[in-house]
Write a structure and sequence with these properties.
Structural class: alpha/beta
Number of helices: 19
Mean pLDDT: 97
Strand order of the largest sheet: 5-4-3-2-1-14-15
Radius of gyration: 26 Å
Number of strands: 20
Bound molecules: nicotinic acid adenine dinucleotide, adenosine-5'-triphosphate, glutamine
Distance between the termini: 70 Å
Largest sheet: 7 strands, mixed
């Protein structure tokens, strides 16, 4: 009986959903690296061939057939005597379609395991497109019995328990686990410890890294030994192919302890997720870079910083678009921020367009006094201008609204909401302030931007203002951000009642006002660009509310 097994954990960015040949090349490179390290088995993440999350793409028979072809090719390549290979992808079996793991060994598909537990909550809808496989049994591999599971399988006890009872020597899960701040400490590690305690088996969590539309995969793969000690923790937000060595000790399989790379602190994780999300979105969709409006305010400053760290200064263009209400401080701060970041900075005044619209609309508006209409026009003129630059130069427009604004509708639809992607969509304003301070004090790993402060201090300390009329401040229209964000978190992430929030010390009238703002802004969010998921309840797939909602009027 063999006593040593070497498993390479390929924590890779499988290029993107549907890019099967590029994904296969990435898998091949990981297998070659595993072979170089002396691996017997190379493990790649959930749906590594097809790209994760495939959503309704799996309903296309052509996609499923193409995946099967690529998997067959990869299987044939394992006739070379090198390591076995675990990949993920769709498996059409008669009229059933599974999310499956495939063991490729000796030139063929040696085993398949269909995902048994299909996640159908949060961002997931797997019951809609996949059939559930049977509870898995262990797979024999070179003298060892491996308990292979596909992601959600290990989040519930049944599969691990059955694998243990049927003789598995280790639990090995391949994952596509979406990032949420602190998910490793808060959820994955404690749950993995539970599975180890329940079964007495070592546990491997092999995760993918990268981003697909709104979802970031943060990596942080790990191995737990039967005594619950952490034998390996791979980096967060970066690819890695790590060799793990397994030995039989009595009747147990144990992993030789290796490097443990803890995830960054919470702000570091959120910043890294925003950076990876934007980088992969822009690169996978083939944009040369991004353009954004730089107002001298905090939201556009941090968005620009993330863009520079994601793409490098040469791929980011900032545009200041002053109106008669733009303060000299904003002009100075925007220019200084662009200088600190080393990005191209253009100035395009919007006064002429404001005058043109005022003249065009005057006969129809008659003697109605100026109001929010004229404010929104400024925002829309900026949106049209930025989209013109995007059309002309091919860069994607980066939109800058944060979660506090998206929650309350404090943004102009077809105005500052214009754009292709957002890094702040799921970040509350209070966290925006903290992230700015964090970035000015830290150079994130892998960042393409400069070290040191990249946002002028005044951008962080001055009161937020949209500058759409003289002396306007956000707090003329909204509660203080500390109060607003506490209420929003309670209503959105907590689904709390008005009474529960009042019992926590919040003012009833303010809570009611925010509740109504939140409900009424649903129509804006449905038309908002996608953005990086950071919290357990991001707008979009994670939180699906009706637009037409009569319950709002009943809330007291
Ligand atoms: N249920 C519904 N379904 C579909 N459409 C609906 C709708 N309710 C209103 N609408 C439409 O939406 C329009 C109102 O929305 P919109 O035009 O956006 O305008 P509105 O929401 O009234 O105003 C925009 C708000 O955002 C603030 N703002 C603007 C720009 C930047 C910033 C900032 O600091 O970041 C803040 C601004 O001060 C103001 O409070 C209506 O005129 C109507 O056309
Ligand atoms: N004068 C300006 N020049 C360039 N872009 C602007 C200008 N004013 C607003 N924008 C764009 O519109 C977005 C919304 O701006 P606004 O100042 O109204 O609100 P904000 O949410 O406080 O954002 P910020 O903190 O970036 O100012 C900005 O982030 C920026 O991208
Ligand atoms: N892809 C999956 O099955 C992932 C589901 C799992 N609960 C997670 O969030 O990590």
């Amino acid at each position: 009986m063999a006593d040593t097994l070497r498993i390479a954990l390929a924590q890779i960015n499988t290029t993107h959903v549907g890019a099967l040949h590029a994904n296969a090349d990435r898998i091949r490179a990981a297998r070659a690296e595993g072979a170089r390290l002396g691996a017997d088995l190379v493990v790649t993440p959930e749906f590594s061939v097809g790209g994760y999350l495939p959503e309704d793409l799996v309903r296309k028979p052509a996609y499923v057939a193409a995946c099967a072809e690529v998997i067959a090719t990869l299987a044939a390549e394992t006739a070379d005597g090198g390591p076995g290979l675990i990949v993920g992808g769709p498996w059409a079996d008669g009229d059933r379609l599974y999310n499956a793991a495939f063991l490729l060994e000796g030139g063929k598909i040696a085993a398949r395991r269909a995902k048994h537990e299909l996640p159908n909550y949060g961002v997931f809808d797997e019951k809609r497109v996949f059939d559930a496989g049977p509870v898995p049994g262990p797979i024999p591999f070179r003298g060892f019995r491996i308990g292979l599971m596909v992601c959600e399988d290990w989040w519930l006890p049944t599969c691990a328990e059955t694998l243990c009872e049927t003789g598995a020597e280790m639990l090995l899960s391949i994952n596509g686990s979406p990032f949420e701040a602190d998910k490793h400490d808060r959820q994955r590690l404690p749950l993995a410890v539970t599975r180890v305690v329940e079964t007495g088996l070592p546990f491997v969590f092999l995760a993918q890294v990268g981003s697909q539309d709104e979802i970031v995969f943060d990596g942080a793969s790990f191995v737990l030994n039967p005594d619950r000690s952490l034998a390996a923790l791979l980096p967060s937000f970066a690819e890695d192919v790590r060799l793990t060595e397994w030995r039989r000790e009595g009747d147990r399989l144990v992993c030789v302890p290796g490097a443990v790379v803890p995830p960054p602190d919470t702000l570091g994780q959120v910043y890294a997720a925003m950076t990876l999300g934007l980088r992969d979105y822009v690169n996978k969709n083939g944009f040369p870079g991004v353009v954004l409006g730089l107002s001298g305010g905090i939201d556009s400053a941090i968005s620009a910083a993330v863009a520079v760290d994601a793409l490098g200064p040469d791929r980011v263009q900032a545009v200041m678009m002053p109106s008669p209400y733009t303060s000299p401080e904003s002009l100075e701060d925007a220019a200084k921020c662009a200088r600190l970041l080393g990005i191209r900075y253009d100035t395009i005044g919007i006064g002429p367009a404001m005058d043109a619209f005022a003249g065009m609309l005057a006969p129809t508006f008659g003697n109605r006094p100026p109001d929010i209409t004229e404010e929104n026009l400024q925002s829309r003129i900026r949106g049209v201008t930025l989209m013109a630059l995007s059309n002309k130069f091919g860069s994607m427009l980066l939109t800058t609204g944060n979660k506090s604004e998206m929650s309350t509708g404090y943004a102009t639809i077809y105005g500052d909401m214009c754009g292709g992607y957002s890094v702040l969509k799921d970040v509350y304003k209070t966290m925006v302030f903290a992230l700015c301070r964090w970035r000015n004090a830290n150079l994130p790993a892998g960042a393409l931007g400069p070290a040191g402060a990249v946002m002028p201090e005044r951008v962080i300390t001055k009161p937020p203002s949209a500058e759409l009329r003289p002396d306007q401040k956000d707090q003329d229209s909204l509660p203080e951000y500390e109060v607003l964000d506490a209420i929003l978190e309670g209503l959105i992430e907590g689904e709390k009642s008005v009474d529960a929030l009042v019992a926590e010390g919040l003012d009833r009238a303010t809570v009611l006002r925010v509740w109504k703002l939140l409900d009424r802004a649903e129509y804006k969010r449905r038309q908002a660009p996608p953005g990086v998921k950071i919290t357990p309840r991001a707008f979009g797939r994670d939180r699906r509310y009706p637009i037409t909602n009569g319950f709002t009027a009943l809330v007291k």
